[in-house]
Design a protein that fits this description.
four-stranded mixed sheet; alpha+beta; 7 strands; 166 residues
Length: 166
């Protein structure tokens, strides 16, 4: 929902969820998130900004390695929070997607020097609504997003995330 977390109760629930993620063992590995993408983020709030979420993850995991990335304008921005001890941000940019821009970031796992290990993460927020024009606009946004990724070159690794309003 819009601009969550907005209260300290929301933040407590956030802590519960991300604590559980970090302790969930998959194939014998349990670890906190490396990259979290966010939509509808306010700027400057201590609770519901990407910096506030980075601060919460740092507190939860006893580290200072979570970093906030927010670019763009407006009150409901796209952002990412990433663990700088596991991934290095190589580049980031706004990309034309539709009525809202998308956020594209290029990451490289820590310890890797070869650009072939890089991957791209998109955070997007597609048009909401149930009218046929809303459906058409979402289709256009998806096409624009895919075209941007295709422009990165052959054999790049891409992760699409966001509020797709399906």
């Amino acid at each position: 929902t819009l601009d969550k977390p907005t209260t300290f109760l929301d933040s407590s629930q956030f802590q519960t969820i991300f604590g559980a993620i970090a302790s969930e063992s998959v194939n014998g590995i349990a670890r906190p998130v490396d990259i979290l993408t966010l939509q509808e983020q306010q700027v400057g709030s201590s609770v519901n900004s990407s910096q506030g979420i980075a601060d919460q993850l740092n507190s939860l995991h006893g580290t200072s390695s979570y970093v906030s990335l927010t670019i763009g304008t407006g009150s409901d921005r796209l952002s990412m929070v990433y663990n700088s001890s596991t991934v290095n941000l190589q580049d980031s940019d706004l990309v034309a997607v539709g009525i809202r821009p998308g956020l594209r970031a290029q990451f490289r796992p820590v310890g890797y020097s070869d650009a072939g290990s890089d991957f791209y993460v998109y955070s997007t927020h597609f048009k909401a609504g149930t009218s046929s024009s809303d459906f058409d606009l979402r289709a256009t946004e998806a096409t624009n997003l895919r075209n941007d990724a295709d422009g990165l070159g052959a054999d790049v690794n891409v992760i699409y995330t966001g509020d797709f309003n399906l």
